[in-house]
Amino acid sequence: xxxxxxxxxxxxxxxxxxxxxxxxxxxxxxxxxxxxxxxxxxxxxxxxxxxxxxxxxxxxxxxxxxxxxxxxxxxxxxxxxxxxxxxxxxxxxxxxxxxxxxxxx
Length: 105
Description:
By secondary structure, the protein is mostly helical. 62% of the residues lie in helices and 11% in strands. α1 packs antiparallel against α4 (40-52) and α2 packs across α4. Residues 1-91 form the HTH arsR-type domain.
């Protein structure tokens, strides 16, 4: 799992940008900035972070750059987090069993 994905998703503005892109075919930085409480320049910087993490892809159409969301890195991160949660659940169950004096199966 790419740690850049988790770092990119850690920022609430980037999550909001991804949410906006997930509900549209494509959008420009200008269109995204109009829907957010940040400047177009800030949106462009956030998009660069998202693109480095593979969460968005850009393509030029004339003078405009259009961005689209790619859900694959989020799905990989989700699978990794689910596996991590399962391992923690197993460890916690073992600790509980030891604390209650039970034997592990």
